[in-house]
Specification:
The chain is of the alpha+beta class. Helices cover 41% and strands 17% of the residues. The protein has 10 helices and 10 strands. Strands 1, 2, 3, 4 and 5 form a 5-stranded antiparallel beta sheet that branches. A 5-stranded mixed beta sheet has the order 6-8-7-9-10. Helix 5 packs antiparallel against helix 6 and helix 5 crosses helix 8. The radius of gyration is 29 Å and the shape is globular. It starts with a helix and ends in a 22-residue tail after the last helix.
């Protein structure tokens, strides 16, 4: 009987203690938690489940009190990246870009743009560098290419150096990558002839198909008196595919998502521009670089040691 009373008393005490214990606080949400960040950004951008989302690890942002997180949404060959700055307690987030007053606002893009092995035209060492990511099968790229070729180096004979970068959109353009590989093969054989290929590919875009590309390419080589054997061997073996893939990867790192996309001293310009618009931007940059000297090919951005050898 005593044992029964003790059991009943214990049950009553447990019930009383549970009634007096406050409910557990819900877990604190944090933008530093990847699933939380993903769910928030999906809602923010209306990204459905078909879009894959990757949230980077937080890293120092260079801004006191904030961590940098990049969220990338992708579906097939299309992707979009967004930069966020998260408070260290994970409670607040800012979307945008940070700038250092001592640096060019487009320094990150300038550092990522590699032009050493890219086809170029215009004056080496020019204060303005134009880099175009393009696709030979893209109609908008064709129109921009015509505009650039007709105006750029003629108007700015000494002030601009332009480079071409391959960004073939394989999922929607079936002969764009073969054309990019062919162009790079021509460039390997004769750098100056690349621009003949560039103009020819865009001029014949409407008549081109994957089935006829190689035969038409042979005709181009014959017309321009370019050594066909080594170029066709290069094309058939896809010897320059790695160059094209490298160019494409560079574009992805620069968040290129469509063609044409142009960079003027690192300033990203997506879509078609009219010549007056592009001319105005270049003129502004030429004037700015007279004192800033923080972009272009003669920016003096590299530190070199003085020579100790006699001249």
């Amino acid at each position: 009987m005593e044992a029964m009373r003790l059991l009943v008393f214990g049950l009553m005490l447990s019930t009383l203690l549970l009634a007096q214990t406050p409910p557990a606080a819900p877990s604190k949400k944090s933008f530093l938690d990847k699933p939380t960040m993903e769910a928030y950004v999906r809602h923010l951008f209306v990204w459905p489940s078909q879009i894959s989302v990757a949230v980077s690890d937080p890293k120092p942002s260079g801004v006191e009190g904030l961590l940098a997180v990049t969220v990338t949404g992708s579906m097939g060959s299309a992707s979009q990246a967004a930069s966020f700055y998260v408070s260290r307690n994970g409670e607040k987030v800012i979307q945008g870009a940070s700038f250092d007053v001592k640096e060019n606002p487009f320094k990150t893009n300038i550092d990522r743009l590699k032009t050493t092995f890219a086809p170029g035209t215009g004056t080496p060492g020019a204060p303005v560098v134009v880099v175009v990511f393009s696709d030979f099968q893209c109609p908008h790229c064709r129109e921009e290419a015509k505009m650039i070729r007709a105006n750029l180096t003629q108007t700015f004979s000494k002030e601009v150096r332009a480079y071409f970068k391959d960004f073939p959109l394989e999922q929607i353009h079936d002969w764009a990558k073969p054309a990019a590989i062919a162009g790079r093969c021509v460039y390997r054989e004769d750098q100056a002839k690349f621009w003949d290929f560039h103009d020819w590919a865009f001029e014949n875009q409407e008549q081109m198909t994957l089935a006829v590309f190689r035969s038409k390419f042979e005709g181009f080589l014959a017309d321009r008196k370019i050594a066909a054997a080594p170029v066709l061997q290069c094309f058939d073996k896809k010897a320059t595919e790695a160059d094209v893939d490298s160019s494409f990867a560079e574009g992805r790192a620069l968040e290129v998502t469509s063609t044409p996309t142009m960079f003027v001293n690192g300033r990203k310009l997506a879509g078609n521009l009219s010549w007056p618009q592009l001319k105005q931007i270049i003129e502004f940059e030429i004037e700015y670089q007279k004192t800033a000297k923080n972009a272009g090919e003669n920016c003096g951005c590299e530190l070199t040691l003085p020579s100790v050898l006699p001249k």
